[in-house]
Amino acid sequence: MRKPILALALAFACTPALADKILIESPAAPKAIGPYSQAIQSGKLVFVSGSLPFDPDGKIDYSQQDVTAQTKRVIDNIALELKAANLTLDDVVSATVYVTDVDDFPAVNKMYASYFHPPYPARAFVQVAKLLRGAKVEISVIAAKK
């Protein structure tokens, strides 16, 4: 009876849910616009908050651009946040893509595919009613440290 209890205790002690939360921030990426972090590391996982097509310098209004340009800006922002954690897009294991129009799938998918390489991250693609500041796409990712 002791072995299963010890194994269970060790399993819980090693789970990311019980790991420390380490703030990850990139001064090069757009600042958070609410009470959330750009990214959090817990154990070997880095959770990147939903990224919108905001210009880090605040000079370009991406809400006026097409979904391809917005997707590029979103993924570039994610790459900046991952870099702050010493990671790249190749370390992404899961992504959730939110769009306001599911018909944008081909354009978003084409831009997404130009950044990610096999084995591709697991992914969900979801249509939502509306995104902040008129954005057409938002992406959140989870990356894993080796």
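Above is the first protein from milestone M3; the second protein from the same milestone is given next.
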Amino acid sequence: MRLRQLVFVSRERDELGSKICKLLDLKESYNDAGLINFGLENVLIPLGDTFFEIVTPVKENTTAERFLDKKGGDGGYMVIVDVENFEEEQERVETSGIEIVWHGNREEEDIQARTIHLHPKQVGAAILSIDHMNPKTAWLWAGTDWEKDINKTLVDVISGVVLQSDNPELLCSKWEKALGKKRVAENNLSIFLNESKISFVPDEDGKGEGINAFAVKALDKNKILENAEKINALQNGNIYLGGVKIILD
């Protein structure tokens, strides 16, 4: 199990996408026309074989629009993990008592993509999606030729996500159940996945339970910080974009 895609929600998809690319020297790779069925438009940005996605509501009364209204602006929206055995993970979730609110099964160009979305109120902080690709090197949500857009000048891959809550201990317990994984230790509220981790902290910004930060494996921190200053994304030494702190691991 590995963090594979982290999702921002923003009213200004193009502006935020441009800033992310300028910050990390990345390229926008793909827009999924099928998301219009959910009242959304999106863009995918590869970081190695992991991805940032930005979704923007373009129809009224979408979940994304309600999120923006509730939070008062952009923010982290969704966490997508890639698993080895989809059937096993789906059965585990079904027997855990957590409701699955969406099943997806999509085939294109000899690629099969399967996904389940877990009930966000039962998991907490974000929409959690458990996904699997066949072949496992593919990532159909980003199309079929995203590898040509990879650039590792400044950053390698997504390395983590930080979730905040008034009760981080309880939130961690919910994610342990949702993922079928245990925290590192009682005094360390982190769940380690392959090449990535999910951490839990107290509410830092007064915005309530939700995504606090996205972490990336930086290859040139000084250049990224220089870029952050150029696009006015630095606040007290920290990088913020799309309502999310960007941590450089």
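Note on the second protein: The longest strand covers residues 155-165.
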